[in-house]
Q: What sequence folds into this?
């Protein structure tokens, strides 16, 4: 399993962290344009599947773009990725 860093991501993201005064909704929503959220989700998928190659990290990142717009919760986004991540 590898550790994913900001430099490993290919997309263009907004890199602002949610402040400590964030509401519960902000804490559970998944924003695929927010770099820190995408990075955390990619790392979660890496840990879940034991991913160990940059090529597979890119596949996870590409799959995040495909998450349907109606899915905005982090738990739902993770479940969708687990179910829909392309397998080799």
A:
């Amino acid at each position: 399993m590898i550790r994913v860093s900001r430099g490993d991501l290919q997309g263009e993201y907004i890199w602002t962290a949610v402040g400590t005064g964030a509401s519960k909704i902000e804490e559970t929503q998944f924003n695929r344009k927010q770099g820190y959220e995408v990075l955390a989700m990619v790392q979660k998928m890496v840990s879940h599947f034991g991913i160990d190659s940059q090529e597979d990290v890119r596949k996870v990142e590409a799959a995040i773009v495909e998450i349907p717009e109606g899915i905005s919760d982090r738990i739902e986004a993770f479940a969708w990725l687990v179910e829909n991540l392309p397998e080799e």
